[in-house]
């Protein structure tokens, strides 16, 4: 997302991945660049490719085509290069744990993308950039329920505070995700190594599963 934004193909602010449909050759080229740089995984560019975000830019009708195209592209390049392929879900920006109807809708958003990732040949599912532990847990629950036993990687986004938006210390939040069944837990986005690594070191004292940056 960030690299395509720097190149002018993702709009700052919305950060929706319509580039997958509008300029697929750019997404394909970036996947290939990451592979050439040594990445072991090709991650489908379905970040913010859920109905809620796409509706905000008037492209909800592209929901299915965008996700399926992104998954097919990632699977093809991963197979050609002998790499793993990861499906992706992320924070929704509309999650409200105080509204049961909202929680159910959020889980359904996750379910649809997870189902497509399974059918698209993903080797595992990444759920990333969550600010609230409750939403991260809901995403993990959806992966475990609908992910056809694929491994799960769940990461939180540590911004300026040392706690989640629902006031759980980040290392403890990662521990709770481990206890809930995540195969890998970690942090992504929002910080550089100097301020992120100390939190991960603390998390390592609490967690036994793999940690991911």
UniProtKB/TrEMBL annotation:
| Family annotation (Pfam families) | S-methyl_trans
Pathways involved: Amino-acid biosynthesis; L-methionine biosynthesis via de novo pathway
Q: Would the keyword Nucleotide-binding be found if you checked this record's keyword annotation? A: no
Q: Taxonomically, which superkingdom?
A: Eukaryota
Alphabetically, the GO molecular function entries are:
methyltransferase activity
GO BP: methylation
Q: Does the keyword Transferase apply?
A: yes
User: What PROSITE patterns does the annotation carry?
Assistant: HCY (PS50970)
User: Could you tell me which residue ranges the Hcy-binding domain spans?
Assistant: 1-213
List keywords of the entry alphabetically.
Methyltransferase, Transferase
The name of this protein is Betaine--homocysteine S-methyltransferase 1-like
Organism expressing this protein natively: Elysia marginata
């Amino acid at each position: 997302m960030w690299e395509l934004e720097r190149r002018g193909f993702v709009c700052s602010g919305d950060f929706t991945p319509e580039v997958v449909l509008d300029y697929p050759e750019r997404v394909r080229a970036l996947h290939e660049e990451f592979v050439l740089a040594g990445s072991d995984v090709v991650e489908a560019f379905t970040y913010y490719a859920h109905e809620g975000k796409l509706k905000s830019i008037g492209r909800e009708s592209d929901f299915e085509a965008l996700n399926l195209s992104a998954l097919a592209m990632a699977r093809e390049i991963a197979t050609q290069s002998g790499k793993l392929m990861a499906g992706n879900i992320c924070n929704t920006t509309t999650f409200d744990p105080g509204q049961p109807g909202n929680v159910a809708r959020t889980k359904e958003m996750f379910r649809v993308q997870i189902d497509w990732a399974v059918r698209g040949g993903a080797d595992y599912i990444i759920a990333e950039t969550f600010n609230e532990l409750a939403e991260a847990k809901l995403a993990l629950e959806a992966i475990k329920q609908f992910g056809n036993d694929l491994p799960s990687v769940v990461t939180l986004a540590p911004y300026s505070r040392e706690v989640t938006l629902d006031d759980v210390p980040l290392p403890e939040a990662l521990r709770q995700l481990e206890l809930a069944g995540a195969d890998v837990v970690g942090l992504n986005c929002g910080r550089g190594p100097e301020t992120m690594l100390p939190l991960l070191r603390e998390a390592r004292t609490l967690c036994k599963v793999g940690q991911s940056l």
